[in-house]
């Protein structure tokens, strides 16, 4: 019998807190059960096992990133929306580094719900980029380029390459502005 008030959603949210505290690779069902003050066997009332938990964490990470991006771009267009995406993406990755790492594992998943959640995140950027061109090939190219900028920036910052006294926010802003200028001036091949 499940503990009163404990749901799969609560289990996954508790796991997300553990992931941020101890790291993705250090998450165990025993640690999760201890955090929830239940026996490890009781977790199986809510999840089938660690693989389902990882899948649920991936879905949660994507959903949170999507929600932050959607909030950031609300009622914004083109450059303003691209700037908002950059700073919401950066903020999410900095505030949730381990959950961000989980997102990077999604492309290797065969689970349709994760692929769909990933597409939802990508569609936000696609919609904004479609304000610059209707050519699907170019939208894909611009999306890959922009995502590479954002992920590369976050990865380098996380690795400590930006500990040089210069403003990280100003650097990101300038890089994003350069990308926007290239889009507006049609400087891409």
Please characterize this protein's 3D structure:
- The structure is a single chain.
- The protein is mainly alpha-helical.
- It contains eight helices and no strands.
- The chain has helices at 8-22, 29-36, 50-73, 78-95, 97-103, 112-129, 136-158, 168-184.
- The longest helix is centred in the N-terminal third of the chain and has 24 residues, at 50-73.
- The radius of gyration is 19 Å and the shape is elongated.
Entry summary:
By secondary structure, the protein is an all-alpha fold. Helices cover 69% and strands 0% of the residues.
**What separation lies between the terminal Cα atoms?**
61 Å
- Rg from Cα: 19 Å
Please count the beta strands (DSSP E, at least 2 residues each).
0
Structural class: mainly alpha
Instruction: Please bin the fraction of helical residues.
Output: 55-70%
Task: Summarize the topology.
Blueprint: H1 8-22, H2 29-36, H3 50-73, H4 78-95, H5 97-103, H6 112-129, H7 136-158, H8 168-184
Q: What labels would you give this structure?
A:
189 residues; mainly alpha; 8 helices
